[in-house]
Amino acid sequence: MAYEITLATTMAISVLFALSLNFISGFCGQISLGHAAFLGTGAYASATLTKASVPFLLTLPASAVIAGFFGFLIGLASLRVRHDFLAITTMGVGFLFVGVVRKQDFLGGELGMAGIPSPDMSREMFMVFCIFLAAVFAVFSLYIRRSWMGFVFDSIADNEDVTRILGIDASRFKLAAFVIGTAGAGIAGALYAHHFRYIGPDSFGFVQSVSVLAMVIVGGIGSVWGVAFAAAILSVLPLLVQFVDDYKLLLYSALLFAMMRFAPDGIAGIVRRSAARFRRATP
Amino acid sequence: MLYLELFIQGIVQGSIYGLIALGLTLVYGLLRILHVAHAALFTLGGYIGVIVTNFTGSFALAMFVAMIVVGVIGMAVYKFAYEPILHRPPYIALIASIALFIASEEIYRIVFGPFGLSYINPPLQGQIEIFSGFRLKHGEILVMVIAVVMLSALAWLSANTRTGVAWRATVTDPEMAAAFGIKIQNVRYLNFFIASALAAVAGVLVALLNNLVEPTMGSVPSYKALAIIVLGGLGSIRGTLVAALALGVIEAYGTIYLGKILDRDALAFAFLIIVLMVRPQGLLGEK
Amino acid sequence: MTPVLQIENVTVRFGGVTAVHDVSLTINVGELVGFIGPNGAGKTTLMRVITGIVKPQQGRVLLEGRDLARKSIDARVGAGLALAQQIVQPLHDMSMLDNVALSCGSRKTGRVITAMLHTNREPERDKARGLLEKVGLGNVVDAMPATLPLGYLKRLEVARAMALEPKLLLLDEPLAGLNQAEAAGLADLILGLNKAGQTILLIEHNLREVLRICPTLYVQDNGVPLAFGEAGEVMKNPDVRSAYLGGHA
Ligand SMILES: Nc1ncnc2c1ncn2[C@@H]1O[C@H](COP(=O)(O)OP(=O)(O)OP(=O)(O)O)[C@@H](O)[C@H]1O
Ligand SMILES: [Mg+2]
Predict the structure, then answer these.
(1) A159 contacts in B (CB within 8 Å)?
(2) Which of B204, C9, C118, C232 has the largest count of CB atoms under 10 Å?
(3) Closest ligand 1 atom to Cα of C45
């Protein structure tokens, strides 16, 4: 049972993390290749605080605020550069994060932080809590899609220049997307730190940033259900196929490549297309 | 003298970056794809270089074989990986490329083993004293010479041959080029061949300098080369070379003077972010 | 006569090309000004200077007496400009209706928080439906823009601009791509809007319709202002005649 609880907790944290990126890349169309840095920011912030005996629950809003603040700064960068330039800039931010953390003794440097206190709740309770937070973010995402904010995001993802010509201050909306998305990642990071109770610079590197973007794209960029589903599956897939341990990463990357090559609109796209075919077949 | 030493080390490193990043720029200029998997071809070049040298004893032959084989594989990558998804949003190709890169690294690990290969008799290990107390390996000199020769040859060819002119026309305006009867498809193949062959050369040279080629050899260059081409203004050959050399030199100094707060690989990105915030179009890019 | 728009000594150069050369122009409340000139005369460029897409090397633009220089594109639109572009740019991932509805929602999209707190799109969709009907697109409200021909997308541009209820409506060749009946219909609509009080600057190559509806003309050639004034007078101007007959068009 303990194993299943660990799996479910891992899944929930990944879902929250992937949905937070979906907010930025899926809703608002700003591709980020450095999202793991915000997971890391939240994780390090929260771990540092609980190690200084701050209650775990209080560290959640703190992690959100700190990650959201850095997200705001990256959002400012997104006002200067676009598209490919933005993807590379965010990638750079990811490398910069790891590079800086490695050299900070108070964050454990290369070795990372071990012995992070457990959250003040049972493992079952923690699992439920993680699932709850992921669900809250999913519902919030679904709401935003329907709101006028979601309407504007659609427009920005589609064509930012036109959005401005329609009199909408696209910059503010992009900043909002970055702040909300990175704050969500910060909370996921706090959960992550207290789930694994060890964090190191390599937990938040480029591979993690790519993995989470892969979750979003495999799920179907912008689709809340698709992304949540893909994140849940992909986060535990490596654990489930451990018998092919040596080929794990190969399998994973081959899958990702195949997905991009043959079904780039992701699981959500496949479902949508099959549903349409089904409807046509049964008039 | 430390200044000068660091500077020359930086130029050597920058030449390697240049060889790798140039291929990336060529691909970006033509297809607007951020070809991360380029670095997988770089690593492959290193493997072929070491293996052929060890078998035949000829380093020159190894270099030649690496260029041809990797060049052809590069064309295959275009044909089977990129061509079918060119009409998709650019991030699709980017993710596909990253996936291809990770998969390649895994294949190298599984095929060649995780610990890497070395030259049995490493060639070009002799040293020359440049000035008192400062020596350069023959290999390091070769790096600079090859970089200069290759890149000048490329510049000359693109300016003075029919193929070069066709290539430049295609980069500037594909539709116009097609209207003038240029076979865009051939230009793309050629482009991938040259880009990949350059990466192979860089791979062979890095394997020589380190006397080691390992599966993950491409990881750092791959992302750094992206930073370089962005710094260079995406698609600008001159900009890419300037950025590559600048980064090599900045890293050489930075590791000494900033090593306490930033590691070497993060330096490139700090530089990248600062430049982009001041000049969103890159160092030499045009608005 | 109160001026809505004042353009003062605007010059724009692209590399070696001077697209707009020292242009000054005033448009007063309630006017409908036709802006004509051969291809490459710098009409679109001047339009883009007004909306802030292009920054002029010299000169300034005032809207209701206030200098727009430091305002972003969206702020200018907020201040009362609206542009229907020559090169159509529909939002491809939403229906024709939503393209216009988004434009109708400026009260809800003005602030991020307001946008976040509102979900109801129906009032804007109703208004959008009305606008689409006015421009003759009542039968394609639910279509996706990619499936429609250019003439439809041109009118979508106009509907989106009208939705902003601007103080000055800028139209860049709205009639191009429309057949004669459609063009006459849209020209009538433009005239009607103007009769109802809307101030309009209309770039158009379709001289027949321009001469039919615009009381005032402004002519530019190679970036240089040629004539401004009552339409009949302007068309008699020898410079204008040679620009058109002897020139490129
Ligand atoms: N972004 C740009 N960069 C460089 N040159 C430009 C740019 N935009 C316009 N030009 C040049 O400026 C000149 C004026 O162009 P503009 O589009 O304003 O003309 P126009 O009067 O709108 O023509 P048309 O009737 O064909 O729409 C042309 O020579 C054009 O090539
Ligand atoms: Mg024009």
Answers:
(1) none
(2) B204
(3) 18
A–B contact: 3+ Cβ pairs < 8 A? yes
Q: Ligand 1 in contact with C225 (CB < 6 A)?
A: no
Q: Is the CB of C45 under 6 A from ligand 1?
A: yes
CB of C38 sitting under 6 A from ligand 1: no
Q: Report CA-CA distances (Å) from A51 to A44, A67, A112, A193, C207.
A: 10, 19, 13, 11, 77
User: Is the predicted pLDDT of residue B1 greater than 70, yes or no?
Assistant: no
Question: Residue C85: inside a domain, yes or no?
Answer: no
A264 touches chain B (CB under 8 A): yes
- Sort strands C168-172 and C81-84 into parallel, antiparallel or unpaired: parallel
Is C114's Cβ below 8 Å from some Cβ in A? yes
> Residues C136, C172: one domain?
no
B154 has a pLDDT exceeding 90: no
**CB contacts < 8 A (A, C):** 92
Question: In chain A, which residue ranges form alpha helices assigned H by DSSP?
Answer: 2-21, 36-51, 56-80, 83-102, 123-146, 148-158, 160-165, 170-196, 206-219, 224-240, 248-262, 266-281
Residue C70 shares a structural domain with residue C101:
no
B39/A contact by beta carbon, under 8 A: no
Model pTM?
0.88
Q: Please give the pLDDT value at position B39.
A: 93
CATH number for the domain spanning A36: value is 1.10.3470.10
Does C170 share its domain with C235?
yes
**Total domain count, chain C:** 2
> What is this model's ipTM?
0.90
The pLDDT tens digits for C178-200 are 888 889 989 998 999 999 999 99
Of A83, A91, A100, the CB nearest to B90: A83
* CB C30, CB C200: distance < 8 Å: no
Residue where a domain terminates, one of C114, C131, C163 = C163
User: Nearest bound ligand to CA C37?
Assistant: 1
Residues of chain A in contact with residue C119, where contact means CB-CB under 8 angstroms, are 143, 146-148
Is there a single domain that holds both residue C179 and residue C133? Answer: no
pLDDT, tens only, B3-20: 788 888 888 888 889 989
Pairing mode, strands C32-36 and C216-221: parallel
